[in-house]
Amino acid sequence: MFCCGLGTNISCTFCNIKENIGSRVVAETDKLIAFKDRSPSAKIHLLVIPKFHIETVKNLDASDLPLLQKMIVLGKELLKEQGYDPDDNTQVR
Prior knowledge:
The chain is of the alpha+beta class. 23% of the residues lie in helices and 15% in strands. Strands 1-2-3 form a three-stranded antiparallel β-sheet, covered by helices on one side.
């Protein structure tokens, strides 16, 4: 399941992406999925999203902080696997 996994929210890109990412998945946890962007704007362009629906950033609250931290950690781990240092602000990605 991705985002809400139901594909019932027609306006949500991530609810409806389930059938289209297939082999682009690079990592998955119980709450997150990471995959290669279909139209990358950088050499390494990955998306890390929750497996359940969140309407917008405005809908986040303090209880979502652990999820956001996990998203950041996973994103940094994936960048390191690709040879990038996510803490180096001078590095061109």
